[in-house]
Amino acid sequence: MQKFTTLTGVAAPLPIINIDTDMIIPKQYLKTIKRTGLGTALFSEMRYNEDGSDNTDFVLNKPAYKGASILVAGDNFGCGSSREHAPWALLDFGIRCVISTSFADIFYNNCFKNGILPVVVSKEELDKLLDDASRGANSTLTVDLETQEIKGPDGGVIRFEIDPFRKHCLMNGLDDIGLTMEKAASIDSFEAKASQSRPWA
């Protein structure tokens, strides 16, 4: 998993509440088990017209936001079914951080397992960040995980809380497999002792 330490990038405003996982990645794209290639399907029902052309009114299709790496979204982001394809699609598009006032629990946990930082802020702080994000190409934010700070284009700073263990995993690029491999020496030692004491096993 890619490490997350400090991210500076364009923030796209998406002030819609209750964005569920079907809006993030519609069900017809769930046939694959690959984590790549889903970026083109991200928010597809909002990004594309019925004829497949770009919906120029959707924020991620606007020239200033096509390279956005931060999403500033409305309350209860990631609700609905527990599809892991949702963070896969965000990550494949290039989104490494989502900021909201609240997240659905399963989506929130899946973000950490896929290298995406979900940041919870207050309503007042979200309003300020949405205003920052509305500046188009000038809507650059810096998210510093080590100091747990979001720095705005005008120099304002918003602090956020995060579980220390999840912070450690993100900063070191550790998913569940990575955490297990950190114990590889202990696992190998246990297996060696077990094979000596139980050669028939």
From TrEMBL:
Belongs to the LeuD family. LeuD type 1 subfamily. GO terms for molecular function: 3-isopropylmalate dehydratase activity. Gene3D superfamilies: Aconitase, domain 4. Its EC number is 4.2.1.33. InterPro entries: 3-IsopropMal_deHydase_ssu, Aconitase/3IPM_dehydase_swvl, AconitaseA/IPMdHydase_ssu_swvl, IPMI_Swivel, LeuD. This is 3-isopropylmalate dehydratase small subunit. Heterodimer of LeuC and LeuD. Residues 1-123 form the Aconitase A/isopropylmalate dehydratase small subunit swivel domain. Keywords: Amino-acid biosynthesis, Branched-chain amino acid biosynthesis, Leucine biosynthesis, Lyase. Pathway: Amino-acid biosynthesis; L-leucine biosynthesis; L-leucine from 3-methyl-2-oxobutanoate: step 2/4. It comes from Pannonibacter tanglangensis. It catalyses: (2R,3S)-3-isopropylmalate = (2S)-2-isopropylmalate. It comes from the Bacteria. Catalyzes the isomerization between 2-isopropylmalate and 3-isopropylmalate, via the formation of 2-isopropylmaleate.
